[in-house]
Design a protein that fits this description.
This protein is an alpha/beta fold. The chain has 16 helices and eight strands. The protein folds into two domains: 171 residues, 5'-nuclease (Rossmann fold); 87 residues, DNA polymerase, domain 1, CATH 1.10.150. Helix content is 47%, strand content 9%. 5'-3' exonuclease acting preferentially on double-stranded DNA.
């Protein structure tokens, strides 16, 4: 049976980099002092390779254990995508990518392409938009899985697309998987990649309080500090109850707009408190930050109509060149692979 894997390559390479970083760098807070230990990072012929090596091992293990037949690996090309044009503050708080990691992005993409993997990147869109577009095109044709640590991808989950959401350690992943094992057909658990929690629509609702398609609405209210998406200040605790009642951000504002005067607004706030359990009325904040809410929802929405460079046949792992693989592993000193 065919099985399609969509990889958030940027997320995996970053995680791989920090997972194989010397402790002198990992625990040093001063950026300039970190540079003194760059020579301790895994290298071969003057090229940094720690992130590449760890990611390559991870991909090989997943391919084999999960019996993957088709794969696409999506990378971010730039932070200056259409979202930055919409909102200048988008991801503005993030520090610059360390040089040893920056060079490995180029090397990793080149190595994967040489071997024959389908590698997607685009100047105007992020990796999650490319992943969303791949899922939209092919998830109905075969069981589809996405692996990432980014919670934005939750919105892509549906009956034909499962998310393997990477956790910080195996214990956390096991806890999530065990907590929701009864939601799966056999009720006995399942094989998932290391450190990954398997997220289906039912698990998403149980774990995060909303359905996958409501994730952008949720982030429209609560924001996202990792991406510097503002949301609505002071309304986080009310977001899930409101979305359970109204389903969408637009419908919440429709309810607010249906109040012609202060008396009806107080009545709405009382309904939220008594029926939804919202202790502190978010009405004032929602009205004040309406523009930010809808902007945040849009920023958090993964695009699913980006034109990809590869078709499904080009994503087949049967196209991989074992000779090229050996050559690339030798080039970067991956003898154990």
């Amino acid at each position: 049976m065919n099985r399609f894997l969509i990889v958030d390559g940027s997320s995996m390479l970053v995680t791989s980099y920090y997972g194989l970083l010397p402790k002198q760098i990992l625990f040093e807070k001063d950026e300039e002092k970190k540079k003194k230990y760059y020579d301790k990072i895994m290298q071969y012929n003057g090229l940094y390779t720690n992130a590449m090596y760890a990611m390559t091992k991870t991909l090989k293990k997943i391919e084999k254990e999960q019996q993957i037949t088709h794969m696409v690996i999506c990378f971010d090309m730039s932070r200056d995508t259409f979202r930055r044009k919409q909102y200048e503050g988008y991801k503005a708080q993030r520090s610059a990518t360390p040089e040893p990691l920056k060079s490995q992005f180029v090397q990793m993409e080149d190595m994967l392409k040489e071997i024959g993997y389908a590698v997607e990147f685009c100047e105007d869109y992020e990796a999650d938009d490319l992943a969303g577009s791949a899922a939209a095109l092919y998830s109905k044709e075969m069981p589809t899985y996405i692996i990432t640590k980014d919670h934005d991808y939750l919105q892509l989950v549906d009956k034909s697309c499962t998310l393997w959401l990477l956790q910080t350690n195996q214990d956390k992943a096991d806890a999530v998987n065990n907590r929701y094992s009864a939601l799966f057909s056999d009720g006995k658990g399942f094989l998932v990649p290391d450190k990954a929690a398997q997220i289906t629509p039912a698990v998403c609702r149980a774990e995060f309080g909303v359905a996958p398609e409501q994730i952008p609405d949720l982030k429209g209210i609560v924001g996202d500090t990792s991406d510097n998406i503002p949301g609505v200040k002071g309304v986080s605790s009310a977001a899930v109850p409101l979305l359970r009642e109204y389903s969408t951000l637009s419908a919440i504002y429709d309810a607010i707009d249906s109040c012609p005067d202060e008396k009806s607004e107080k009545k709405l706030s009382a309904f939220w408190k008594e029926k939804l359990g919202v202790k502190r009325s978010p009405l004032k904040a929602l009205k004040q930050y309406r523009e930010e809410a809808f902007m945040s929802e849009d920023l958090a929405t993964i695009r699913r109509d980006v034109k990809l460079r590869h078709d499904l046949d080009q994503m087949s792992l049967e196209r991989l060149d074992d000779k090229k693989r050996r050559e690339q592993y030798q080039k970067y000193g991956f003898r154990s692979l």
